[in-house]
Amino acid sequence: MSNIFYVGIDLGTSRTSVATSTGKRITTRTCVGYPKDIISKKRFGKDYLLGDYALDNRLGLNIVWPLAEGVIRESEKSLEATGLILRHIIAEAIPDKKESDKIYAGIGVPAQASLNNKRAIIDVTTDYIDKILIVSEPFAVAYSIDRFDETLIVDIGGGTTDLCRMHGSIPEKEDQITLKIAGNFLDDVITKAILEKFPDVQLTPRIVRRIKEKYGYVSEVSEPVVVTLTQNGIPAEYDITDILRESCLKLTNPICKEIQKLVGTFDPDFQEKIRNNIIIAGGGSRLKGIDRAIEKSLRDYGGGNAATVQDAEYCGSIGALKMCMEMPEEYWEKI
């Protein structure tokens, strides 16, 4: 007798997370490393490496981030890499799957992903996913926390920030906004700001990401942020407190403007309710003080209330899982 396994996937620019009906949760970096030459291929003994393992060995690999811009890049290598990542993480999450068993998956994508991009996901997973439901990432977040009435979801990922107004039914196009200002943008801003003040320090994307994730803030006060960086291999301490806040504000200020837009264009009878029900999700929700910064931006509108999700890592994948377990048959494979 065959079994049906349900899988919720948050296919993110930087990280991909999975939650399954068996209770398993797994996350991985959304990247694939291909050996640079015959020497690296001999060293690894594989045609590709995935996730953190690939990054740990990146000097001998060509790293592909297939969703670097928030959606699958339209190249054969990016499509292949996306398929490899999804195949691997599903196999890891459901190791006991038999050949006769079925996989039903809900996959979260950016709010305004194109029809072609959704079709590409279906095409690269057709060999190992039996039924697929493509869902908006902010809608998946709302589904995970059962917030469907007059709620504004702000999902700050790596490549995109997705905003979505919920009002008791499936959101319309005008309820959703996708910004290309997100975690990767902030990494670039922080890198440029540090090098402008300390031009000789040595930075890599992983170093900058660790700084952002550990110290990033937009609150008006903070403990001093002093980090150890190297200059020509020699470590020293650098105070980046002001640099970090000014950089993070370049992320949050545009997001706040789009929140104002979605509040200001909503039905006037429900504007007060939606500005007092703002949920912040994604990796960007970990920035210290981001909830208060959003509330401050709504003072001219009568104030607001913003809160961050408790589980930023798996909130989207849990919502996608719940949705695919509860969704009526006629919605499957609907794009």
Describe the protein:
Strand 12 and strand 13 form a beta hairpin. The mean pLDDT is 90. The chain has 2 domains: 123 residues, 2-Layer Sandwich (Nucleotidyltransferase, domain 5); 163 residues, Nucleotidyltransferase, domain 5 (2-Layer Sandwich), CATH 3.30.420.40. The strands form 4 sheets. Strands 3-2-1-7-8 form a 5-stranded mixed β-sheet. The chain has a 5-stranded mixed β-sheet with strand order 11-10-9-14-15, sandwiched between helices. With 335 residues, the chain is α/β, with parallel strands linked by helices. The chain starts with a strand and ends in a 9-residue tail after the last helix.
Summed up, what is this model?
The chain is of the alpha/beta class.
